[in-house]
Amino acid sequence: MKATEIKKGIYWVGAIDWNLRNFHGYLTQRGSTYNAYLIIDEKITLVDSVKSYLTDEMLKRISTIIDPSKIDTIICNHVEMDHSGAIPKIVELNPAAKVYASPKGVSGLKAHYKKDWNFVEVKSGDVINLGKRNLHFLLTPMVHWPDNMVAYLAEDKILFSNDAFGQHLASSERFDDEYPLDIIMEEARKYYANIVLPYSSQVVKALDDALKLDIEVIANSHGIIWRKHIPEIIREYRDWSSNTLDKKVLIVYDTMWGSTEKIANAIYDAFEQKGYRIYKYCLQDNHISDIMTEVLNAEYVCVGSPTLNKSILPSVAGFLTYLQGLSPKNRKTILFGSYGWAKQNIKEMERYMTESEFQIVHTVNVNYIPGEEELLAIRNEVLEKI
Questions:
Q1: Is 235 helix (H, G, I), strand (E, B) or coil?
Q2: pLDDT of residue 235
Q3: Predicted confidence (pLDDT) at residue 374 exceeds the cutoff of 90
Q4: Residue 153: what pLDDT?
Q5: Buried-most residue among 131, 138, 141, 234 (CB within 10 A)?
Q6: CA distances in angstroms from 97 to 46, 72, 123, 380, listed in the order given
């Protein structure tokens, strides 16, 4: 349980969650880390913490550097419990410790832990002196909670970036030049698509403010720390937050007896003829968070379901609920499916997509089983619409 030195006197002291596989609906096949950082100065400062059940792991790492009871300054960039879960223990060890957070962060910590700690509210532009170093604060509300903020250690050029630039990725390696960059980027993209996407306009502002700083290290709250490939991840964040779309289509569906799948294949043929990159996902075999990663830059998200009991299949309803919450903008859709005696499937999917502000380009609904001529007609109709 060793700490990792980032720069002289500044350490990663977080915890590795090797077995995490679900993060409130987001499939985390590679686990995660909860990154906490210890600054050794006149004020012994802890930036963020870990989930409560990994508190002992964090304390063991801190103990390789200093007695944890000597921590007198705690920075809480984000209230969510994967960031703040170990703070109660740190305050228990040193009740006089000051807990710095945004105004909404202070109220959030009180609501979570029912304690009146030695809170200090900070706002954008505030600076605290740690001794030889100065820690600057920038509030970044709704990236991705109202309380969010980041902290910048000016003398060492470290941005403690909170959830921004993170990835759910468990690893004994700490830095981006120690781990395959393609995997880091894959997980960063998935993280953005499943957590940060609804707040892209706020990300743009936060990027503009934060990137005025001279940054040599991005010390994020999850996954690998950035020190070599900072320009690459910033470029990707600018691209993702600008809602840049490719000539790409997702065909997402579930099927009972194969009819909806046959329609999905006909739609596939039409988009293939038009030169689109195509990703086809049956919800029986693909997790919604993996699908959402590809939504990030897709022009079309086509969705299909048969009617089930005057509605749609639960898997499709779950996907559409998840999609609606993440709120991708300026997308198009084709809705399709099959039915026996009730045509409610399309109506229900239209409700979701209208509320999600998707442009509905075309709908296809087939009674029972489509024949070859009908499938050819569907393909030709879609060709005309896209």
A1: helix
A2: 93
A3: yes
A4: 97
A5: 138
A6: 10, 4, 19, 69
Residue 144 has pLDDT above 90, yes or no: no
Residue 202 above 90 pLDDT? no
**Helix-strand-coil percent breakdown of the chain, rounded to 5?**
35, 25, 35
CB contact set of 94 (below 8 Å; sequence gap of 6+) = 69, 70, 71, 72
State the fold for domain 246-385: Rossmann fold (3.40.50)
- Only one residue has tokens 């300026």, namely 330
- Catalytic residue numbers, as ranges: 24, 78, 80, 82, 144, 163, 191, 222
Report the distance separating Cα 33 and Cα 175, nearest Å: 13
> Which ranges of 94-199 would DSSP assign to H, the alpha helix?
103-113, 181-191
For residue 128 the two structure tokens come to 């605290």
How far is it, in rounded angstroms, from Cα 374 to Cα 339? 15
User: What does pLDDT average to over the chain?
Assistant: 96
Residue 24 in this model has a pLDDT that exceeds 90? no
pLDDT of 199 over the 90 cut: no
Q: Are 34 and 180 in contact (CB under 8 A)?
A: no
Task: Specify the residue for token string 């001529």.
Answer: 373
Q: Which CATH superfamily is domain 4-241 in?
A: Ribonuclease Z/Hydroxyacylglutathione hydrolase-like (3.60.15.10)
Phi then psi for residue 168, to 5 deg, are: -85, 105
- CA dist 289 and 302 (Å) reads 16
Q: What is the DSSP-derived secondary structure letter of residue 18?
A: T
Q: Are 51 and 82 in contact (CB under 8 A)?
A: yes
Residue-wise over 200-230: b if at least 16 C-beta within 10 A, else e?
bebbbebbeebeeeebebbbbbbbbbbbebb
pLDDT confidence bin for 178, thresholds 50/70/90: very high
Place of tokens 């532009």: 125
Round to whole Å and give the CA distance between 263 and 276. 17
- The pair of structure tokens assigned to 158 is 């470290």
One fold for 4-241 and 246-385: no
Q: How far is CA 111 from CA 53, 207, 236, 244, in A?
A: 20, 29, 35, 38
